[in-house]
Amino acid sequence: MDAKEKLLIWKTVIALQAVDALKTSAKVIEIAKQNIEGTISDDALLDECENLKNPADIVAVRMFVNIIQNQFSLSQFELVQIRKALFGGLEDSPELLRTENLSKKEWALDGLSLVYPKANKIKNQLTKLFEAETLFDFEGLESKQAVKHIASFISELWTIHPFEKYNTRTIAVFFVKYLSFRGLALNNDVLSQSPVYFRNALARSAFCDGKKGFHKTNRYLERLVKKIVLGGRTVLDPKEVHLYYDPNGVVLKVEGAAGGQDKNEQSASDRLDEKLVAAKKAPAKKAAAAKPAAKASAKKAASKKPAAKKRGTK
Predict the structure, then answer these.
(1) How far apart are CA 57 and CA 74, in angstroms?
(2) N or C: which end of the chain has fewer CB within 10 A?
């Protein structure tokens, strides 16, 4: 894997910590930089976790390691193994499916919670979902149809919410590996630039309240998948996914950081990019600073030249 591919994955896994409102530290940015430059090998990355205390840093490194591994199976077993690899040691029995019914407020739903499947239904729903996906034929599928199917599959998987917590980051890693499995390897930084939009789109895809006029919709998730798979200039604004978004002026009933990144806050992706190019920018700045000095020296030298004698007229 070349440096460009590594940079893309590092930016993605670091940014995805934002789906749970977590922030990575400068330490993981430095680890990523050294790995991209070859100072830290891929095999040594997990050892670096021993020196990290911030859970977001630890999970980011583990996410990177898990994604670059070639092994993948379209199965419930794979999903469980991913969660175990990401959160082992950070919680008890990370491989277990949830045993309690779940309720969780979502910013995009104006503070309401989705109706998640009951705990005793999870295993059966996962089995049916993966059986259907294994049999689904992608051959000859048009790009528009592929986008719709991918969005639908990931929405259904996330909506089951098979674990007590950390579902979104677990499924995000599964999603990236799934794309590669389908021959659609991650080739842009859409996820790294839109982690909160990703979560909001997942929430909207599963929300329904007919009395208030809200129904399940995959259109936001499809926009994200389309941009990942096909590219394009579509702007993915996390706020537009909110139930009460007004395109003529954002009108939200609930304020909160989950709606999007603070405009004054530098993104994790930007911090990593800045770290990598800092060394290259330094000489340029030095050279630029030298130009005014050179001009000043030339001006000073010119002032010392004797004035030319005026030629008289007869």
Answers:
(1) 27
(2) C
